[in-house]
Automatic annotation (TrEMBL):
SUPFAM superfamilies: Protein kinase-like (PK-like). GO terms for cellular component: cytoplasm. This is Phosphotransferase. Gene3D superfamilies: 3.90.1200.10, Phosphorylase Kinase, domain 1 (3.30.200.20). One of its GO terms (molecular function) is ethanolamine kinase activity. Pfam families: Choline_kinase. One of its GO terms (biological process) is phosphatidylethanolamine biosynthetic process. It comes from Pseudooceanicola albus. InterPro entries: Kinase-like_dom_sf.
């Protein structure tokens, strides 16, 4: 559903109330709205599922994860969910604003995001398994050989990612409930640097270091020194094998999300330049994979 008026009419919580909707820009998967009761000024966040997103989002798992995150104080409360109509109603986080990359240069914000991740990884129990390495293979299958937007060097990028995959799998992977997303505006902060994380749509059991890697690359802490600083915040130590693993995950994640962006550019009606976003991500992937640190990480994982 993309009609916000029709969506409001389907929400029992809004029955008999004068609700006015205001579009929230910035989402690149769904269509988001701020909905306000004109009498009481009570405000809600309403999400309308993006057309076609059922191809790569398990909405029932996303709902379970969102409820667990809310109970832990990491995410907003969930008030209503209609999976068939593609409507969700969540707590509107008053006093919180979306982070930008500049916010993440604040050590308090980074530390609080890592603390939230640690809490989630220790408590989020999900049946769906979707590791970062699986995600990479899934989008390789969806896009490569099917899209004219795939770059000429994609075979080289895929080969390098599969080298990383083989090395990581050979060393073993432990799973926990993970967020599996790191789009910077999904992290909400208040003036005290407290954090809430929204949009748990990609949540699944995965290697927790994939989450650390994703956030590290999103905020440009993607060299060994930056990754080490994030691991120190996440678990109070930096082990060489974990540093290597997380560094490799960054390269794989850049390719995975670059392919996702190509897929979205050809399937999503949302007004976002996914093609440009893909080119940026794959350019960063080339830099990551082309570094001498890549071969070091392959030997140390």
């Amino acid at each position: 559903m993309t009609d916000i008026t029709a969506a409001i009419a389907r929400v029992p919580l809004f029955g008999g109330r004068d609700m006015k909707a205001f579009r929230i820009n910035g989402g690149i998967t769904n269509i988001n709205w701020r909905v306000v009761d004109q009498a009481t000024r009570e405000t809600f966040f309403v999400k309308l599922h993006g057309p076609g997103t059922e191809q790569f989002i398990d909405r029932e798992t996303a709902l379970s994860a969102a409820k667990i995150a809310a109970a832990k104080g990491v995410g907003p409360q969930v008030f209503f969910h209609d999976g068939d109509a593609g409507i969700e109603v969540h707590e509107f986080l008053q006093g919180f604003t979306s982070c930008g990359v500049d916010d993440a240069q604040d050590a308090t914000v980074r530390a609080n995001i890592m603390a939230a991740y640690k809490d989630v990884h220790d408590s989020l129990k999900l049946d769906l398994v979707n590791t970062g390495l699986q995600q990479f293979e899934d989008f390789t299958a969806k896009v490569v050989g099917r899209s004219a937007q795939v770059p000429a060097d994609i075979d080289q990028l895929i080969w390098q990612c599969r080298r990383a995959k083989a090395a990581i799998e050979a060393s073993g992977v432990s799973l926990a409930g993970c967020y599996n997303d790191a789009y910077i505006s999904n992290y909400m902060r208040n003036d005290a640097g407290e954090i809430r994380i929204i949009d748990w749509e990609y949540a699944a059991a995965n290697d927790p270091y994939w989450d650390v890697a994703m956030f590290s690359f999103e905020i440009f802490f993607d060299d060994l020194r930056g990754v080490a600083s994030m691991l120190e915040m996440y678990e109070g130590q930096v082990r060489e094998d974990v540093l290597a693993r997380t560094y490799l995950y960054i390269g794989v994640a850049m390719v995975r999300w670059g392919l996702w962006a190509i897929y979205q550019s050809e399937n999503s009606p949302i007004g976002f330049d996914f093609a440009k976003y893909s080119r940026m991500l794959l350019l960063r992937a080339r830099r990551q994979i082309g570094s001498a640190d890549w071969d070091w990480a392959l030997s140390k994982v």
